[in-house]
Design goal:
With 89 residues, this protein is mainly α. The protein is built from three helices and no strands. This is Peptidase S8 and S53, subtilisin, kexin, sedolisin domain protein.
Length: 89
């Protein structure tokens, strides 16, 4: 076994446990949502500008290919891996 292979094997031993290397903590302070007419008026203006109601019947998603990127870290029960010809539920 070469030097690199031995080092890789040593690192893999520590990787047998699942989870973050350090304890997780929030990176920002949680904010309390605010509801008011002032807060929503820009949203209403954008909604009118984009005319999303008229676009909704056209936005079916038909013919759109979607990629699902799965790290394989946590297996999903009932799904096959890519080696099993794709993920199917």
């Amino acid at each position: 076994m070469g030097h690199h292979a031995a080092a890789d094997q040593h690192r893999r031993g520590a990787a047998d446990t699942v989870g973050p290397e350090q304890p997780m903590r929030p990176s920002t302070i949680c904010q309390t949502p605010v509801c008011s007419r002032q807060a929503t008026s820009p949203t209403r203006a954008a909604w009118r500008l984009l005319d999303l109601e008229a676009a909704r019947p056209l936005a079916t998603g038909a013919g759109v290919t979607v990629a699902l990127i799965d790290t394989g870290v946590t297996p999903i029960r009932g799904w096959r891996t890519c080696a099993g010809r794709g993920l199917h539920h």
